[in-house]
Amino acid sequence: MSREQRAKIDALLCQPRPAGPRSVEEIRAGFRALMAQMNVPSEIHTRTTTLGLRPAVLVEPTDTPRGGTILYFHGGGFVFGSPQTAMSLTANLVTRTGFRAFSLDYRLAPEHPFPAAIDDTLSAYRALLDSGEDPSAIVFAGDSAGGGLTVTTCLAARDAGLPLPAAIVAFSPGLDATRSGESMDTKAGIDPIFTRDGLEYTGAMYLAGQDPHQPLLSPAILADLTGFPPMLLQAGGNEMILDDSTRLAARARDAGVDVILDITADVPHVFQSFTGLLDEADQALDRAAHFLSQHLHGNAP
After folding, report:
1. I need a surface site. Which of 9, 101, 264, 265 has the fewest CB within 10 A?
2. Is 269 noted as a catalytic residue in this protein?
3. pLDDT tens digits, one per residue of 176-235
4. Ordered structural domains, the chain, with CATH
5. Is 74 a catalytic residue?
């Protein structure tokens, strides 16, 4: 990582923000504007479809897709974001692997608080299974809050008696609604995106008064991961929720789950979005694509 690359990213992320809490509409608009600056590969086809009860975007490579499906969950603190804001990540996984991806437009808080997002992601996974897709041909992937959904959707699927997907890839996952990780304090002031107040502001919209001390909200400290598929957790060394990944990786290891904890130093939350701007972003996506190719097995769609 060159200092020039990092300086450009910090300048992009540290633009002046209005004082005081922003409205939900302002947060959503600001995130759309930020993510519209990310690089999206041109070698894809996209179309809107439905998966379960929710809209989704099907992303396919321009060449004939390989057998296998990525079910992608976008980030945004459960309050903002969409398949469009995550397109740089989804499209890069598709072009690097040759697999198709469904990026789900799950319901957002505060209009639809916990557990609406998990209900939607589980419904989407069930729809893939009901369509005849083999679970060994499906992987969950996601970033930030969507990275957390890769784990909690697996928990919900296991509780529902469904077979689990072939693997999980999570970019900077949010896995602890209690905000009890040490990195919440040790990375404060270093993280160019998050503050504790900001995380608690949007977090309260999703919680809507629910106790965060439950596995579907804080799997990093409470989930039983027995029987989980192989996991790749990627995080940046400068993010306040870094310990969400480190603690989940420890729980996975203790449960006998194959887990790779992949931490890149001196980069921010969901640094993988900055393809073409940050060398480490492209390298991390290459590693994620290699992991997917190792674990996805199935028939052509």
Report:
1. 265
2. yes
3. 999 999 999 999 999 999 999 999 999 999 999 999 999 999 999 999 999 999 999 999
4. 3-14+22-295 (3.40.50.1820)
5. no
